[in-house]
Every structure is written in C-alpha cells, then in structure tokens.
Amino acid sequence: MTGAGTGTVAVAPVAQAAEGRRADLARLSLNTATTKHLTLAEAAAAAADAGLSAIGVWRDRVQEVGAEQAARIVADQGLRVSSLCRGGFLTTPDPQAAAAALEDNRFAIREAATLGTHELIMVVGGLPACPAPGAGARPYPGDGAADPARDLVATRQRVADRIAELAPYAAEHGVRLVLEPLHPMFAADRAVVSTLGQALDLAAPFDADVVGVVVDTYHVWWDPDLQRQVARAGAEGRIASYQVCDWVLPLAAEPLNSRGHVGDGYVDFATITGWVRDAGYAGDVEVEIFNESIWADPADRTLATLAERHVRHVLPHL
Amino acid sequence: MTGAGTGTVAVAPVAQAAEGRRADLARLSLNTATTKHLTLAEAAAAAADAGLSAIGVWRDRVQEVGAEQAARIVADQGLRVSSLCRGGFLTTPDPQAAAAALEDNRFAIREAATLGTHELIMVVGGLPACPAPGAGARPYPGDGAADPARDLVATRQRVADRIAELAPYAAEHGVRLVLEPLHPMFAADRAVVSTLGQALDLAAPFDADVVGVVVDTYHVWWDPDLQRQVARAGAEGRIASYQVCDWVLPLAAEPLNSRGHVGDGYVDFATITGWVRDAGYAGDVEVEIFNESIWADPADRTLATLAERHVRHVLPHL
C-alpha cells in the first residue's frame, strides 16, 4: 500500500495487475478453431497479446505455412503448442481408403513432432453408411438384411485395430494419440467414440504416454459416469487435454457450430473442472469453439471474452 | 397346394396371407405421436385398419376424451394399450412446482390404470437453468459462483427422490414407472437421464414391476455399453417397452423432430433388436416418430410404411 496516490509508484500496482493477469491465464490456450478466420500467425499474435501462454493448432492452418514455419511462428510469440487437431477418421472398411487414412495420420504424427507438441487429438470417424458429416444415410442393401455399414460394434473394432497400427509410430515420434469422445449427437457422422469410458477402454492396451484422452466439456458434460471416468483417466495418466466450451440451445442449423463461450450455456464448469483438477491434471485449458457468430467477432473481443470467462468460471476450480 | 388354380379355393391363400400379415404385425404398436394430427379415435382406427394389435397413447389425446372413453375407443378397435406417454418433468428445485409435478404424475398413474396399461413412460425433465425445451440458458448468478441450476448431479438426485415418492402410489394402482433415457442431446432441456445404465441404476431400489425402463433406439443406439445394459435390463425384468425409430441426418431445425422411419437412418436395428430379443423381451414394438414431414403424410401411408419397415428391419430379429 506504500505510495498509493502518488504518480510515480502507481506504476507498481499496474505492473502487479499485469503480472496477476498473466498468472491467471498461465494455463489458458486458444484453439485456432475458435478464431477460424485468422491465419496461424494472426491467431498466435492475438493469443499472445491477450496474455495467453499456449495455442492449440489445427492442421489446415499449420499446412498453410508448413510445420517448421508454424513452430517458429508460435515460438516467436512465446507460446506453447498445447495440441494438434486432428488425426483420425479411421473407420472405413475399404482397405485402400484405410491405407490412405493411416498414411495421413502418420503425417499428422510427424507434424505434431515438428510442432513440438506431445498431443495429437484424434477424432476417429463415423459410420461407413454416413458418406459425409451431416449428410443423409446410404440406403440399406436391397434385401433388407443387416447392413455392415451400420454396424457400430464392427466399426468401433476397426478403430481399435487402427490405433494399434499407429501407436508404435506415434511412440517413435514422441507423440501421443489423444482419443476424443465426441457427443453422441455425432456418432453417425463424426466419431463412433462417444464416451470417456469408451475412449479409456480403447486406450487401455497402450502405454499412457502413447494413447491418451481429451476431456472436452461440450462432448462429455451430460455423462452420468463422468466423475468416475475423469478420475480413472487421471489415475491412468491419460488426460492429455482439457478443452472447454459450453452447450448452448437452441442448436445451430449446423449442430457442429452450436458451441458457446464458457458461461453462456448449461455446462457445470465448477463441478467438471473440479473433477479434472482432482484427477491431477495440470496442463493447459484449451478453448475450442465452433460458432458462426463468434467467428464473426473481432479477434480481440473473442480473446477478451475467453480470458474473462476463464477467470470467472474455470480458474477458481482449477 | 391342393386346389391351386381353382377359383373357389384361391380365397384360402388370400386369407392365409391376411393371417400371415396379422401375425407379422402382432407385436407392432402405433404410438400416437407418430400420427400427431389424428385424434385418438382416428389413430386407433388407422392402427386397426393396418392390422396392428396395439397403440401407445399420449396424454393430450387421452385427455381430449377422458381416460374412460379413451379406454373404450381403443378396446372397440380390438387394440391393446402398449404404454401411456408420459409422466415425468420432476427436476424443479422449487417445492411448490415439485408438488404440482408430483400431483400431475399421480394423475397420469390413474390415467394409465384406467386405460388398462401397466406402463407409464417417464421423461424426467432437464436442468433448472433451462426454462423451456430448446430455450436459451438462464444466466449464472452475478458473482460467477457455481450455479445450482446447472448442477446435474443434484438434479439427478432430485429425480431419484421423486421416483421414490411416486413408486408406492404407482404400485397401488398396478402401474409401472418406466424411466426413459433420452439422447444426451436433450440432457439440458428434457431429460437428465441419458443412458440405459443410468436409468437402471435409478430403478434398482424398486421392484421390477414398479420401476422399469424403455429401450428407445433413437435415444440409445450410440451407447457403447448398450448390449450389456439391455441384457441387464432383461435379466432384471425391467424392459417395459421397445420403441423404434431411426436417427436421420441432417438434424431438423427442431432436433426433437429429427426422427425418421425405421431404415431411413443409421440405427443398426438387426443388432439392437437381437439384443432386446436375447434379453427376453416379448412385448410390443412401439413406433414413435416425431417428424414434420411424416406428420404431413396421410395416415394410411404412414401406417403402411410402419408395417413394411417392421417386417423388413425388425421382425426378422425379434
């Protein structure tokens, strides 16, 4: 309190406030999907300007400049890469398409290594009967018999088999395959991995340093088994990322883009963040929001909201 | 084969075909939500004309005529009532609203008894922070503290407590409270019961004849634990209803109305129906579809499609 009210030493509280703010945001990471229209360089600058310490990057923005240049861009802003999004889409029954998918995943593993992140997020893909995300279903075979393209059990087994194929390659490159359970709303078209417990079962045969899981509030907030599975994930050392955004209603016309800023919807961030903390997670908190209206906002406003909501709804429970 | 080709006895194969068709549809039930614009009398007539044996009725259509008259309408068409939809909406933290909800559920129990159905479907309700289905969220309390209206764990506990309050009354009336897990997409606004396993955990303290569960393919098809939980539900004698309709994409603007005819979407009816059969379920198969376009169809066309899809996709596995 010394010097309060004098012109010169008033600088000290300001510096302290800035320091405090940086400490508050020390674990907050901007996922580039939240600022969809920014290049990697623009997103990294926005994150650094807002006082964040990390960035989660999508492959499209990395590939625009190449992984080595992307690594430099992020390092120049003094940021960590909290994760690379995303590998996966491994569910096709077609051998040629499967080989291409595996090759693309090996490329993603090398990109993650070059970027210096340990965590490669994996969205595993949907049912073969679903030709594209959100599209209508392929008809049943003519005789009305059971359709292998709608067989969830077999599709999930292919995911297990292909994770097994990729795991040694990921381990060699010091990269972890991070299975992301997606909300069951996306089970047909995007990910046949729908719960944290299922992701942990898939990860179980592998070293925790090679196959992990992400806890994304949007996808798992509703799960009656969540507390137990978060604790299990922590005990196994598999929580690779904590991603936050909110479940808002009504759903957008494109449900993928229905996510909201933390605090705008129904997710109980106090409780879930507490479970993640109690599970021993000490890594970054990545904000990944798909939302047309947020994408239309100026980046500095988006970043300011991210920071404010983090301090208000997540940090006190972290 | 005797008499084949003669005019008089050609009637026999036609009669046999009609008999065969009636046998095929012996367990098929029309839920009145599928023919939303029909009165109960119209829906019962349409179901009987199409050769069905049962009807699942919604309370709005029952209350238009009263439960006693509704029972007569259904009996006059030679149909069973497979279930009454629906009780529930038990999640409010407000004592006065809770008392009103319990009273309404007691009324529903009496309606079910009057209708002669043992099965009262219960949609338990959403989070208090969600003022109405599909609506936006109530804001957090001003201080940014944890919000009890977003506390899923506490909300689910209230459901358990209120089921316990209703169970003796249901038992007295020979009616079973049938917990319906709704798709996690509806966890905020309609039902904090999201999986079959969770519904069975809630039912566990009660006699299987007093609290049961419904397996509705639309809500549970994605669940990686489904096979195990269906088997458990069967072993416990708690499967009160098997409801079918399909998960179609893209979702409708009002996601509640996104359901499709069996065979139009992604659900693996062969596998799930086989699990329900193996669990020992021998009751009705109720078709409950919320879909604006199907509601606009003539009822005879809707019923013909129901019958055709049942024979093609469900019956062979039942």
Give a short summary of the structure.
2 copies of one chain form a homodimer. Chain A has a single domain, classed as TIM Barrel, CATH 3.20.20. The first copy, chain A, is built from 12 helices and 10 strands.
Please give the CATH class of chain A: Alpha Beta
Give the overall pLDDT of chain A as a whole number. 94
> How widely separated are the two ends of chain A?
29 Å
Question: What proportion strand of chain A?
Answer: 5-15%
What oligomeric state best describes the polypeptide chains here?
A: homodimer
For this structure, the CATH topology of chain A is TIM Barrel
Uncertain segments of chain A of ≥5 residues (pLDDT<50)? 1-8
Radius of gyration of chain A, CA atoms, in whole angstroms: 21 Å
Order of helices and strands of chain A: HEHEHHEHEHEHEHHEEEHEHH
Largest interface: A-B, 55 and 55 residues
Question: Percent range for helical residues of chain A?
Answer: 40-55%
Structural class of chain A: alpha/beta
State the strand order across the main sheet of chain A. 1-2-3-4-5-6-7-10
Walk me through the structure.
- 2 copies of one chain form a homodimer.
- Chain A has 318 residues and is of the alpha/beta class.
- Chain A has one domain: Divalent-metal-dependent TIM barrel enzymes (TIM Barrel, Alpha-Beta Barrel), CATH 3.20.20.150.
- In chain A, 42% of the residues lie in helices and 14% in strands.
- Chain A is built from 12 helices and 10 strands.
- The first copy, chain A, has helices spanning 11-24, 40-49, 59-63, 67-76, 95-115, 152-172, 196-203, 217-220, 226-235, 269-278, 292-295, 299-314, and strands at 28-31, 54-58, 80-88, 119-123, 176-179, 211-216, 239-244, 246-247, 259-260, 285-287.
- Chain A has an 8-stranded parallel beta barrel, surrounded by 7 helices. A two-stranded antiparallel sheet of chain A has the order 8-9.
- In chain A, α5 links the parallel β3 and β4.
- Chain A is globular and about 75 Å long.
- The two termini of chain A are 29 Å apart.
- The model of chain A is unreliable at 1-8 (pLDDT under 50).
- Chains A and B meet through α6 and α7 of A and α6 and α7 of B.
